[in-house]
Amino acid sequence: MEVFANLGAGFVTAFSPYNLLYCFIGVFLGTFIGVLPGIGALATISMLLPLTFHVPATTAIIMLAGIYYGAQYGGSTASILLNLPGTPSAAVACLDGYPMSKQGRAGVALFMTTVASFVGASLGIVILTIFSPMLAEVGLAFGPAEYFAMMLLGLVAASTLSQGSPVKGIAMVLLGLCLGMVGTDVQTGQQRFTFDIPYLADGLSLVALAMGLFGVSEVIASIGRVDSSRMKAQKITFRSMVPTRDDTRRSIGPMLRGTGVGAFFGALPGTGSTIASFMSYAVEKKIAKDPSRFGKGAVEGVTAPEAANNAAAQTAFIPTLTLGIPGDAVMALMLGALIIQGIQPGPRLVTEHPELFWGLIASFWIGNVMLVILNLPLIGIWVRMLKIPYSILYPAILMFICIGVFSVNNSAFDVMLVILFGILGYIMLLLRFEPAPLVLGFILGPLMEEHLRRAMLLSRGDPMVFLQRPISATFVVITFALLVWAIWAAVRGRKAMPEEAEPAAQASMERPAP
């Protein structure tokens, strides 16, 4: 009963005209940037971070969250119609969504993805509502040692379980930790790694870092990658969106299973909606009676991943809000937005800021209903959005990035930082380094240092405090196991490369000359 009372209070907060307006703005922008391939929720949230200085914390988080889960809805539109995923998690929708479009069933695919998204998000919100307070109560028993060990586990898990090389992920985390050390030491008042530059006394700007790594670098990488001239607007009628009875029957099970997979992976650090959508697709293909249907327009191949990535988008807030551990880069930006507002995410958030916590959960229900209303009648408009020339879109994005980062501190130095981080982000893309672990390390680094110092002070300098306490010892053991696995995977990969290269070289030598 207490949960319902808290949700009622949350709906009172969420239904205020101000919060409703920003919720609508968030889901509308999220759908819009989800439809357009090549931008993504990370870049958009990065650009809108400066706005969080001028609105209340609850309103800001409601809007940013709306962008995040709204992008999950819109990402499948371009995947189905153009075989171009609007978001990374929507890439799976290309496998069966685009074949359905070529079969003249684009309307059915778009309708079923919207329904699957709503089902996955709704069940994800239920899981978030039930488990977040329980996890927060457990977290109240945590001390500095447990917090440090848990954050260390989150960073290592995010770097080793994310896409790409685990060693590269760990390197990005370390770089983020180094960047997070720039500025004035809170305990001693001494400046560190500022190189006598007064602009760095308060540390590097999270807004500049996020905008550069995810905004500017994405613009640079997308130049010439997408040809908007070949994007022809297709007419989708309401009649064409009506699914058959067979489509409905085949979709119910995959929606529920996809929601379960998404809810599980969404709550784990370092996984997120992209891995959840791919895993749900693999599960459906594995248990299908006729796996050959997949890749040729199977409706299950569309509904399961969509339910998974939307459920993951909701449950990703569980560790972020209740433990202060972001599961992916978007959640790291959410964490940064709360810290900018002077609110410390963690177990005390539920009790100290109930209006924010329960208002945010209530806004998820409102936002998802808004998304259904937006997506189904306005599919034709979203399709026409794909005709926006990228030669106009990307310069406008760069202009808004510069205006946004300058407005935070009225500092041209921050604009220079955005340019530098943008170049760094593009180089990282070329070298296949993931930027997400860097952001996680940058945000969690100062918090980890603070809890490490507190733990060492309480134990009088004895590092065994992390192994003497059962919870922190468990986290340390899991972290060590992940590191060993990452090193072993890297060594195994290097050994496999010469073995694969040797037969290829031998075959090329035996090939007769022309």
What topology emerges from the helices and strands here?
Elements: H1 2-14, H2 17-35, H3 40-48, H4 57-82, H5 93-102, H6 106-139, H7 144-161, H8 166-180, E1 183-184, E2 191-192, H9 206-222, H10 245-266, H11 272-287, H12 300-315, H13 317-323, H14 329-340, H15 349-352, H16 354-375, H17 379-385, H18 390-409, H19 412-430, H20 436-458, H21 465-468, H22 470-510
Antiparallel strand pairs: 1-2
**Approximate strand percentage:** under 5%
Derived from helix and strand composition plus strand pairing, the structural class reads mainly alpha
Average pLDDT figure = 78
- What is the alpha-carbon Rg in Å? 23 Å
What's the count of strands?
Answer: 2
Order of helices and strands: HHHHHHHHEEHHHHHHHHHHHHHH
Give the termini distance in whole angstroms. 81 Å
Structure, described:
It is a single chain. This protein is an all-alpha fold. The chain has one domain (2-500). It is built from 22 helices and 2 strands. The chain has helices spanning 2-14, 17-35, 40-48, 57-82, 93-102, 106-139, 144-161, 166-180, 206-222, 245-266, 272-287, 300-315, 317-323, 329-340, 349-352, 354-375, 379-385, 390-409, 412-430, 436-458, 465-468, 470-510, and strands at residues 183-184, 191-192. It has a two-stranded antiparallel sheet with strand order 1-2. Strand 1 and strand 2 form a beta hairpin. Helix 10 runs parallel beside helix 12. The longest helix has 41 residues, at 470-510. The model has no long low-confidence stretch (mean pLDDT 78).
